[in-house]
Prior knowledge:
Dehydroquinate synthase-like, alpha domain; two-stranded antiparallel sheet; binds zinc ion; 17 helices; 52% helix; globular; Rossmann fold; single chain; six-stranded parallel sheet; 2 domains; 365 residues; alpha/beta
Amino acid sequence: MINVFGSSNSKEVQAMHIHAINLPRFVIVGDNVLPKIDELLSRLLVREDVLLVRGDGFTKSPASLVKDYVSEMGLPVHEVCVSAPTVDVVSAVECAIKETRSCMVISVGGGKIIDVAKIASHRQGIPFISIPTSAAHDGIASPIASIKDGKTSTSVMAQPPVALLADIQLISGSPRRFIISGCGDIIAKFTAVRDWRLAHRLRGEYYGEYAASLALMSAQLLKRNVDLIARGLEVGVRTIIEALISCGYAMCIAGSSRPCSGSEHLFSHALEKVSKNGSLHGEKCGVGTIMMMYMHGGDWQAIRTVLSKIGAPTTAKQLGVSDEELLEALTIAHTMRPDRYTILGESGISRKAAEDLARITGVID
Length: 365
Ligand SMILES: [Zn+2]
């Protein structure tokens, strides 16, 4: 029997004739929506113990509010504070689920916290609710999580949140850099979808028009509202959050990260490997999108203009990496995930081509 839930990417391709779509059931976006947690838990018929997974620092105060709201409902709430999304931390949260016999996980935090809750709850066969405190990448509503095993990060298929509470005011209060990173992860869909289509035409890989259109729509919305977003208005933050949620739905519908992650993501993963400079996922993806759009023969200047207007990095220097590191990342990007066919092909690009690409697009001087 083919397991379409939680299967590896290569199996997903084979299993597309049995296409299972698992989507979040409730999504609430707006100002001051945290008190709505009781309504959500009632609708989901939660009557037993709940495990709250939170981070330290910025997420502490919203997590404590959520804990109070849940306690007021008469539900026993247990709490676990997590840091990095590592294999050990995920195991610790799994133990907490078992020990407390929780039937629901509520994650309050940034992408890393949500990733831990996503994997741990999935492995323990219980649902989770996502309450993001930042909008740095599209993991807030997706079924895919990133986990660190030793030095390397890998993407794993887990489950989407059963419900999502996105408080615009709360997310607007997170560092601006996180929101900018979210924009980079959204603009990446322009090249991710082109790569997906290419893999379909050259490799016969499954391609879902609906999921692709949904991912593209998010990127187009961002492009159209760039001035609003650049001004830092809350309405711009709402656009970003809704676009990130849509990207999550696109991945749920596709059954993989294909509509949202292509060659620009391979570049981002490669750069993460060669340089520990501390730049955010979406920041790297944004710069990757400029270069990969050039590779696709598309309007890379338009991508660069959008990122510049928002204040996102468009050069190696702004990413905090050396020209050498950036060029190395470009030449090894195709090895990051050999099962993911993109414009980089099977053998990648030569050092000379990488240099030309980075110079023409203004990523290096
Ligand atoms: Zn991403």
